[in-house]
Amino acid sequence: MTCDVRARALSFRRGGAEILRNLSFDLERGLIYGLIGRNGAGKTSLLSLLASYARPTAGSLLINGEEPFENPRIMAQVHFAHPSDYSEEYDSGADFLRACRRYRPLFDAEYAGRLAGELGIPLKRSLRSLSRGQQSALNMVMGLACRCPVTIFDEIHLALDAPAREIFYREVFADRERHPRIVVISTHLVSEMDYLFDHVLLVHRGQLLVNEPLEKVLSRGCTITGGAREVELLAQGKRVLADRTLGGTRQLTLWGELNQEELKQARERGVQTGAVELQDLLIHLTAGEGSNEETR
């Protein structure tokens, strides 16, 4: 089964508070989506809607043309891997993998066992006796092995050590080729994981600020560095995300792609242009309402 996800004017309230407001986006099979944003931006609430944990307050959310909430056909095709509290869980890791096989029709038990072995997860022990890192690794294994058409990882890496994270990155990337599906990764480790992303969804204060392919997002951010007057002239009409001055040298971080004529002007004026990493764009685009965010 293949799935597509379509959200239009999606909103969600909890306890009278507006968590998500008027989000519209599409998720396509075969792509890895990076869901990024600050703490409290609404990322986990959005993922909960995708995973049928909650129902939207307004707007529409369709997976394969159907509403996912309390829909058994759709719920079986979506896997939500997230940090879990296993302190009272006496079943073993092997028990959990068997349960996953029972409820996930595409679950690959052989792959799960092989990956668990590589990660050093003692599957015969109860989950409550495993370390936090081992518990997170098991959640990762279930998410990868489920082969669900929509697979969500919400901060799954939090307790993983560096070698385990590298295995996760390797397998997510390789599995896209072996078993194409929609993969959504929510993370704060943007600088470490951004190379995995095909598409970026940036949520801030419950709204979708960015919904574009990674290459497009990176092309829209740049730095210009040079004499204060030359930099100021080149930045006219652009949104300035950050402004730094050191002596007579000024550097602006801009949101807005420079065209060929502007690049030519930069060279002629001795202004250097540079790329901006996704994590830096996240920091600047979600900054407070201070003077750093302005349009020249």
TrEMBL record:
Presence of keyword rRNA-binding: no
Q: In which domain of life is the source organism classified?
A: Bacteria
> Which keywords does this chain's UniProt record carry?
ATP-binding, Nucleotide-binding
Pfam family membership, one: ABC_tran
Looking at the record, the residues that make up the ABC transporter domain are: 5-230
Name a GO molecular-function annotation. ATP hydrolysis activity
Q: Which Gene3D superfamilies match?
A: P-loop containing nucleotide triphosphate hydrolases
Q: What is the protein name for this chain?
A: ABC transporter
Species of origin = Alkalispirochaeta sphaeroplastigenens
